[in-house]
Every structure is written in structure tokens, then in C-alpha cells.
Amino acid sequence: MFSSNVDASAREVAIQLLARREYSRAELARKLQQKTFDADEISACLDALAEQSLQSDARFAESFIRSRISRGQGLIRIKGELRQRGVDQETQAAALAAVEEREAVDWFELARETLERRFSTPGDSPKERAKRERFLAARGFDFEQIRYALSCL
Fold it and tell me: Where is the RecX second three-helical domain (predicted)?
């Protein structure tokens, strides 16, 4: 749906991207750099979008966290992915606190539900149990959450 106009401004490109989903400032900057806009133009554009509340790292982070929780991902993985997308620690912490409070997130129960969707038993052998532990660890759950989830199966 990008316009075929090669003279589209950085703002127009950014707005088209944001019309589809939330983006972090760093993601938008990367996308605009790929379109060969210069750094000053990108920075000015992103500052203006943030001022007008069209782009917000806090809003992006909350939306991202909710989507990852619904996919059954744990805190460790979510934080890592937010960091990769250029969201700073302070924004991450505020967004996590807001989502955890609003959605009443229980990471232990999320680990249990995620495990139950994939496996019906805790595993008869140490090898099978380790497979389940690796599955949850890869999803971003910590040791205590994994132990809890396995004890519930």
C-alpha cells in the first residue's frame, strides 16, 4: 500500500507504516534508513511524530507485550525482543508494569498454560522432561516458572 510516488517524504512513509501497526522509534528509523532518507530528516520526522503522539515507544511496548503474552511467551524473551527493537529499560519496565496490572498477568500460570497447549504429560523420562524444560526456556520462562509448570502437568 506504499504509494508509488518515489518522492514520498519520510513522514509519509512513516505514517503508512504506523497505519498498519505500532513501531518503536528505532524500528521506524531503520525502515526509513532503508528508504535512503538522511539521518537529520529521519530524526526530525520521528521527533515530530512522537510530539503528535503518532509514534510512542511506550504504546508500542505495551502492544508488543500483550501480543507476546497471548502467544505464550515469557518475560525473559519479551524483554530481549523489546531490547532488540530499541526500547529502553525504563520504557520496558513501565510498559510491563502497566500490562501486568491491567491484564493481571501471572507468569507462572502462563508457563503452565503454554506447556499444556504443547504437551499433555510432564514426560516419563529425563530426556522427555528436558525437552519440555527447553521448550519453556526458549519461550522465555525462568527456572522457577518452568518448575511450576512441570509440577502442574
Answer: 56-96
Give the C-alpha separation, 3 to 13, whole Å. Answer: 9
CATH 1.10.3720.10 fits 1-55, yes or no: no
Domain boundaries, the chain: 1-55, 57-105, 107-152
pTM attached to this predicted model: 0.89
Q: Hey, what CATH topology would domain 107-152 get?
A: Arc Repressor Mutant, subunit A (1.10.10)
Confidence of residue 7 (pLDDT cuts 50, 70, 90): low
What's residue 153's pLDDT? 85
Q: Which three cell numbers stand for residue 108?
A: 507462572
Buried b (16+ CB within 10 A) or exposed e, 33-68: eeeebeeeebeebbeebeeeeebbbeebbbebbeeb
**CATH 1.10.150 is the classification of domain 57-105:** no
Question: Torsion angle, CA of 108/110/116/122, rounded to 10 degrees?
Answer: -20
